[in-house]
Design a protein that fits this description.
heterodimer; A: 385 residues; alpha/beta; D-Maltodextrin-Binding Protein, domain 2; eleven-stranded mixed sheet; globular; B: 306 residues; MetI-like fold; 14 helices
Chain lengths: 385, 306
């Protein structure tokens, strides 16, 4: 495609670009600078909080324009704030360590009014007893976020193929068993896969690793990824479990398997190993979401309102069973909330073993040499094919 | 392409009397009309590309765009220990195989649409276009349900007393099949357009002069249809080299393709500069290839302007 006659000049292009930029950028620039934000709320979250079931009643109640964008990993959301979107978002919903260890020190979030939120913690399940570590700043003086969804998250098995007892007792070594090669999948959740490859290698993920440990990690990553039948998202894992393509999958738990359990496959079950190489000999990892107000210079007053709104028993129940995945919520400590859960819903979220599984798990944390481990793991994935 | 000419200044100044105000620069009406489009392209097309380019020179795992300059991302990609070339090779291999298979599959269909099907060719065309109305991911998940263990194929065969269907999911062969399926229309229609440009008279004349079917195909049909064939080839190659859904959904990530590596860099790795450098290299590769191909291709002729 050639331009048939000479003539377009650099100046005309630049003029055109400037005009285009003015037209495209104008409305955004003015709305950011001048608009009052009483009727506007932007939420960056894991899926569930972005569902119409959760947001529509709030929209109706406040008459506000509420936008929620869901992402499926914490680092991406935090980097959106770091990349300059701090002026855009009002609430950020990520897993436990990020608020106190990363976002508060980097001034990406601002504290919540303690007097208004402490009463909510009093009604939560006992593990969230005030002052709950992950909701508080390092010095324990500031409240950095509110809590709701949580759950154990290690791996998932089809208990018709591998019994719950065997899976819990064997733990991560299941993935070292050559007989199971080609019979397991790996959930595409790479931050968790870094934790779990360390655990399969018999190494505590949440510390700085020696070169020998990294070498063991690399060998394990290559072997475990090579032996996987497939890598995919939650839907792909559940589909492969239900169809019999795989008997178990690495990285998973209530969050990933609950939709399949609710669909009538209670034999699929999140497993927390009885023991492992982490602090206290624990073998499982759990996550707890902490939702914080972003350090937005023009924060919407609705941000605090929304955090209070989701604490109400009915809304908490809706959040627990919002589209996508089903999870226990901290508000189940309130009898008014707990009674809303049907026996079938409790079965879907493995309520029967929730306490013991949480007790056998360490809480999600930040791996100091995550970047290095992730690069090694990505390289291991490339040599699968 | 809109003509972007300005009036010929040399002629203008020569014919104007001395002392008359000079018009140093005047856009033709066509160029003025194209300004909104140019603006849109600048903001929607050029600006993101420039942002990617700027990011590729930022220090690894940082957001210091235009504040710091580093070649570390390119050095990392070209370092001997980096295995990203594997993903690149897979993507090129899949794209080449897709193009070759599609050329072989689409040619007879295009021939049929042009010369054989007659009044049915409209209906046949619609049948090939129809899948494009459904999202690619949904179609690929449909194939998973078809081929999965105890799925449509395997389950039906078992119900009929056979031992079950072939286990083809999560393999590289399945990825290729998915790509051929997905990109068929993008090869078929340019090829049909190319073949439609072959005058029947020429074929008849060649036959009258004693050329055989093979000779007609080789010396008349293919050369005249070549612009369409080349456009189809180029289009499918460019699309296929950036394909990622087939490897993820049908292949179960048994192969990591280059677009997937870029995606990983932007998500889990949180290494936007590295992902940008990779994107720049892929864009350069495809861009060079496209320009080389377009040099051999006369769009005006294909579109029948002369």
């Amino acid at each position: 495609m050639s331009i048939s006659k000479p003539g377009i000049s650099r100046r005309s292009v630049l003029q055109g670009m400037a005009a285009g930029l003015a037209v495209a950028g104008g409305p955004f620039a003015s709305s950011r600078a001048f608009a009052a934000r009483e009727k506007e709320l932007n939420i960056l979250c894991w899926e569930g909080y972005n569902s119409a079931q959760v947001l529509d009643p709030f929209r109706k109640k406040t008459g506000a324009t509420v936008k929620a964008e869901s992402l499926t990993n914490d680092p991406t959301m935090i980097n959106r704030l770091r990349a300059g979107e701090i002026n855009v978002w009002d609430l950020i919903n990520v897993n436990n360590p990020w608020a106190r260890k990363v976002m508060a020190p980097e001034k990406l979030i601002k504290p919540l009014p303690i007097a208004e939120f402490e009463p909510f913690f009093a009604k939560m399940l006992p593990m969230f007893k005030w002052p709950y570590k992950w909701a508080m700043s390092d010095d324990g003086k500031e409240l950095l976020g509110s809590c709701q969804r949580f759950g154990p998250y290690s791996f998932v098995v089809n208990t018709k193929k591998i019994s719950r007892k065997t899976a819990e007792e064997t733990g991560w070594d299941l993935f070292n068993d050559p007989k199971l090669a080609g019979k397991y999948g790996i959930l595409e959740s790479d931050d968790w896969n870094v934790f779990n490859i360390f655990l399969v290698a018999g190494i505590d993920p949440f510390k700085t690793h020696t070169p020998e440990e990294m070498a063991k990690f690399e060998e394990t990553a290559k072997r475990v990824f090579k032996g996987a039948k497939l890598i995919g998202d939650i839907a792909a894992m559940n589909q492969a479990l239900v169809s019999g393509e795989i008997d178990l999958h690495l990285t998973g738990g209530t969050y990933s398997v609950s939709p399949a359990r609710a669909d009538g496959y209670p034999e699929l079950r999140g497993i927390t190993p009885l023991k492992g190489p982490m602090a206290g000999g624990k073998g499982g990892i759990s996550w707890i979401e902490v939702t914080s107000t972003v350090n937005n210079p023009n924060l919407s007053p609705l941000a605090i309102e929304f955090l209070k709104y989701v604490q109400a028993p009915e809304v908490a129940h809706t959040v627990a069973f919002a589209e996508g995945t089903f999870n226990p919520v901290a508000q189940m400590g309130n009898p008014d909330c707990f009674k809303l859960f049907t026996p079938k819903e409790l079965e879907a979220i493995q309520w029967d073993s929730l306490d013991e599984e949480m007790a056998r798990s360490v809480e999600y944390d930040i791996v100091p040499d995550y970047d290095k481990a992730l690069d090694v793991m990505n390289a291991a994935k490339r040599v699968r094919g | 392409m809109v003509s972007l000419s300005v009036s010929d200044r040399a002629t203008d100044t020569a014919t104007k009397p001395a002392g008359a105000p000079r018009l140093p620069f005047r856009l033709s009406p066509g160029a003025r009309a194209a300004l909104p489009l140019l603006g849109l392209l600048a903001v929607g097309f050029l600006a993101p590309l420039l942002a990617i380019l700027a990011f590729s020179f930022a220090p690894p795992r940082s957001f210091a765009v235009l504040r710091a300059f580093s070649l570390a991302n390119y050095a990392e990609l070209f370092s001997l220990s980096n295995t990203v070339w594997l993903s690149f090779l897979w993507s090129i291999g899949f794209a080449l195989a897709t193009v070759v298979l599609l050329a072989l599959i689409a040619y007879p269909i295009a021939f049929g649409l042009t010369f054989v099907f007659g009044r049915w060719s409209g209906l046949v065309s619609v049948l090939f276009v129809f899948p494009l109305f459904v999202s690619e991911n949904v179609r690929l998940y449909g194939w998973v349900l078809f081929f999965i263990k105890n799925g449509v194929l395997d389950g039906s065969l078992k119900a009929l007393g056979f031992s079950g269907g072939p286990q083809v999911l999560y393999t590289s062969g399945m990825i290729l099949a998915g790509m051929v399926y997905t990109y068929l229309p993008f090869m078929l229609f340019p090829m049909t357009l190319g073949l439609a440009m072959v005058p029947r008279d020429l074929i008849d004349a060649a036959r009258d002069l004693g050329a055989g079917r093979w000779q007609i195909w080789r010396e008349v049909e293919v050369p005249l249809a070549m612009p369409g064939i080349l456009i189809g080839t180029l289009l499918t190659f460019v699309l296929a080299i950036g394909a990622v859904a087939e490897a993820k959904i049908l292949g179960g990530q048994s192969v990591i393709v280059i677009s997937h590596d870029i995606e990983i860099a932007f998500t889990y790795s949180q290494n936007w500069p590295l992902g940008s450098a990779l994107a720049v290299l892929v864009t350069l590769f495809i861009g060079t290839l496209t320009l080389l191909a377009l040099q051999r291709l006369d769009l005006d002729r294909l579109l029948g302007r002369r």
